[in-house]
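Researcher: Here's my situation. A collaborator sent me these components and asked whether they could plausibly form a single complex. I don't have experimental data yet, so a predicted model of the whole assembly would be a useful starting point for our discussion.
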Amino acid sequence: MTTTDPDEPMTTEAPPPVAPSEAPSPPKAGPRALAWQRRRRSAARFWQRYRTHRAGVFGLSALALFALIALTAPLTVGSDVQSVTNAPGRPMESPSAEFPLGTDQFGRSLLGLVVWGSRVSLLVGLLAAVLSVAIGALIGITAGHFRGWYATVMMRITDWFLVMPTLVLAIALATVMSRSLGTIILAIGVTTWPTTARLVRAQTLGVESRPYIERARALGGGHWHVMSRHVLPNVMPLVLAQTTLIISSAILAEATLAFLGLGDPTVVSWGGLLQDAREAGAVSAGKWWYLVPPGIAIAVVALAFTLCGRAVESVLNPKLGVTR
Amino acid sequence: MKTPNTTTAQPLLDVRDLKVTYAGGVAAVRGVNLTVNAGQKLGIAGESGCGKSTLALALLRLLPAGTRVTGEILLDGEDVLTMKWGRVRAVRWAGASIVFQGAMHSLNAVHRVGDQIAEPILLHRKATPAGARKKTGELLEQVGLPAARASAYPHELSGGQRQRVMIAMALACDPRLVIADEPTTALDVMIQAQILRLIQQLVSEQELGLMMISHDLAVLSDTCDRLAVMYAGRVVEEGPARQVYEDAQHPYGQALSAAFPRIGDAGSRFAPRGLPGDPPDPSALPSGCTFHPRCAVALNSCAAEDQALRAAAEGRRAACVHVGPVTVADEARSTP
Amino acid sequence: MTTTATVPPVPQAPSAPLLSAEGLHVTFPARRGDTAPARAVDGVDLDIRAGEIVALVGESGCGKTTLARSLLGLVPPTAGRVTFAGRPLDYSSRALKAYRKRVQLVLQDPSGSLNPRHTVYDAVAEGLRIHRYGGDEREAVSMALSRAGLRPPERFFLRYPHELSGGQRQRVVIAGALVLEPELIVADEPVASLDASVRGEILALLLRLRSELGLSALVVTHDLGLAWNIADRVAVMYLGRIVETGAVEDVLTAPQHPYTQALLSVLPEAPGDPVVLTGEPPDPSRIPTGCRFHARCQILANGEAERAGVADACRGEDLPVLDGGGGAQVACHWARTQVAGAP
């Protein structure tokens, strides 16, 4: 407004569309830089909202702690903590100043074993969950997108796997194949994907009924384009939430399999520790320090992943209405 | 049809200086005065964000907890805002009822329509189920559907039929005032005409008061007696429906009426008229007269000074600096 | 790109149409519970010439949406064919993809048409990426956004659809269609979900695109006022057939088909008494014999058809498909007698 006369018509032209919030104009950057900017911003937004979920923050900190422990284990305890021949202490010693969590049947420090065992348990849990979710998402998206006989066949296979008792199938696989970590990962991954597949397929069907899918087709997009650029990003939140939940059940499954004696006998894992405890008769002898620490570790990690998973779910899908 | 009440009798609905602020601090309605007499039809015109749906919900205290509502809403003399809870529930539906927007989603998909119509009857009148069924049949006939349709589910009905069911539901407890929030917006032209004709017929037969909310000024001018145009939570123009439509005084009223052209009018051929910008966000209203950023005839003072409703002609008011000066005589004449 | 004056160009004398439907039939198979298949499009000839805006008007269920989608190649016809620039559509995926660069779609609901997870930049660039555009992507996106009225375009690159108003979203959708530089746009209810004061701007944009870029358009709508505002020609559809077509000035001010007359009479501000048809259009799986409108026709009901001697024809004889060209035509036995009888 250049004049101060109130009765003069305004000298401004038709205003530009009103912007709800001021966006700083980005420098002349290519599409790549723009994409990165956008990702940084949405990550920041996600974190802001995640922070408000106390349970989720607790879970995340517990996980961070365990991850730290697992990663620094070579420095803190060293791999020779598992060596049976050079065991530092006497067998089945109760907790003392030298061995805060006592010793196992071979005289190894239980604290060191729990720390070392975290590496295997977390690794197996993570990899098995990733495998499971990858299979489930792939089948879910393709079944939801392509429909027809392909989907029918896939969903029947999914139903078959869903009905099978997971543990029994995992045991069967583990007994048939060689006893190693890879087997365990495969066994868990191959038996837990159906839930994800069903959820992802339902979500895919919902996403594909939206008008923007029709627009993508009208622009000339083919199957790959629609599935990767539209369906997958919309399904990702669900997949992420599922991943965290499945990690916790994968860790429990690994512990179970190891407990049952199907795990790799050469590595130390929490489930393996529980099995050793049982075999050494720690239960009847009242040697609680052998059982309790690995058990608590399993429970805490599984809980932490579950809390994180729920928090991620409610951040990405506010309509779920999970109360903080 | 009996002549509507004159100003000596008490208006059916008298809204005085209503202000509604949502829990986040957003002022959706910022001082609205309206009256509706029995047998009279008032149209509220406006677009998204102007507060018209909030106004409708406020009349029956249907706004979410935490919303601040000030002012008075006198329904047959009683202030709805200060009623005790039990009285509010009695008034809801039996005193005034709402025909909601988007009938497709307002009906419960797993209940038969007959049960849904009978629900308020059973809740209020404590009629026997048999009595309620009979009344439901009568209501369906009144809205032009065969009574046998009471056993249908909502998805078995078409859009127009569902809207009729909504109207039947609104009339279930013989209310005195019916508030219709965008009753024909998603419907085809012919179905819209059928529904409007039905509404007019029911209102005149039963001497109801009608408050109809829509963004289509032409439809409102055809159906209603008086018209009030809302923008950013305030009434910016009001008067007899025909006059407000054909000869709007406020620039926003003019734009709304030009948005739906008259067929046959050479002036609107290849000349669609709209306003630049978008309807304002209630949480970020412009200063001064809230319409000034989009106004073609805004003066420099418009950005600083808000405008109150002032008399434009007999029985008409508009809130614009270009509208005629206020005299005491005009003020007195303009109150309906 | 030709820049013409702001006066809209008069459609040229009959040249070859740009996009045309010839004897088009689209039938959907019977669903469970229905005995007959649904004939959504039951014989349509429609031509759209370059630089022309044609309005396809009708109520829900009349088949206009299906017709629009089969013109785009999204729904293959059961019979008949669609030709573009003189050549029939090839439904192989490669040919269809190339077709998409020349004919684009703008949908009704701008909030649903945009993926909520994609920024405005991604939404507009999507078409370029699908077709592996060789030039400067950012430049093309900026240009499309400015043409659609969003200026300065850079301000909108990183926005998400939920941060924009309805009118802005629709402009983004239009920009996404423009970025491929099509010759024709099919707009399905382009302003139905927008606020009244914003409609005018979007319609003016479509007109500007026609005069600046020579863009033709087929606008599918139930709103006759919209046809009056921007269309050159209008085709009125009922139950899968076009029942009247012609220049907007002719059809909307002097309608000849009873259905068109009824539609126009119920608009507020229409002169004369409104003819409110009872009931609703029947199911496309149960199309009546004879003239498909006869069951609801006010002319048959009030005896005028009888007086004109065509009542039997109305009930028994189906009408031929109107040809797609520009002249005023009507598919009605009674209307023909009126024209013939007029001095």
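Model: Some features of this prediction you could bring to your collaborator: The domain at 19-236 of chain C is CATH 3.40.50.300 (Rossmann fold). Chain C touches chain A through 43 residues (CB under 8 Å).
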